[in-house]
Design brief:
Blueprint: H1 3-15, H2 18-25, H3 29-43, E1 48-51, E2 54-57, H4 59-83, E3 92-97, H5 99-116, E4 121-125, H6 131-136, E5 142-146, E6 157-170, E7 177-179, H7 185-190, E8 202-203, H8 206-214, E9 219-223, H9 224-232, E10 237-252, H10 258-271
Parallel strand pairs: 3-4, 3-5, 7-8, 7-9
Antiparallel strand pairs: 1-2, 5-10, 6-9, 6-10
Length: about 280
Amino acid sequence: MHARQLRYFLAIVEHRGYTAAARALHISQPTLTVAMRGLEEVVGAELFRRAGRRVVLSDAGRRFLPLARRLAGELDELDDAARSVGDPAGQRLVLCVAHELVESPVAELVGAYRGTWPDVAVEIVEPEGEPGTAVVHGTADIGFGLRPGPLRRFGRAVTVPVATRRFGLAGEVPDPVLAGPAGSASRVLLDRLPGGPATPAAVARSDRLESLVRAGVGAAVLPLAVCERLGAAGIPFTTDPRLACPVVVTYRAPSTGAAAREFLRLLRRRLETPGGRDW
């Protein structure tokens, strides 16, 4: 039995199915299926059964669930303890980052981090849902997300608001309105503008919204830094105090690996500088 199999099992339970769990874990569904078959061979029973189109725990799965949670927690503690020994050199750091935060400030933070720890392999992965979920499942060390609504806690992981991300409305108004997917920061913030919830003419990820606005397809709520870049190209934009969203960082507690610990230390120093919490 491997820790990976336990995390996969718990992810299927949390996300209520193989497809959603595979997306959250950043793996293919066949990989997840093979891992579960291996776990079921070790346990000696089927852990899930079909209920119509849904996948639910079998009787054996329900009995195994509390044990899996306890074992996964103990293995996480051992893993954290081992990774926190010594310096980060030679380690791997995985960051799960919302699209709106990759270019700035995460790319800048990674550049500064690599200047100090060039031997650490840094990987940035895209979230499926909340970036904090990847931290809980062990597929990321730190999550950077935008939280327009109430804060959400993720098991052993700690989620804290660290800064404010400011947005603007870029493009000619009243052009057709473009927006991010439901629940995204750009979509939620768009609904705060006068006139109430808007029905977008097109839906796209934030990094693609910039291309659509630049092409004259419509107007969209975008990070202020992106709006300023578009403004330099002659595309008008407006600002509004309502277009702001808390930035939250998720990491595992009470301990984390040495590579993640040093990245969090760098982040803390940035936050303590003048304007360091205005992203």
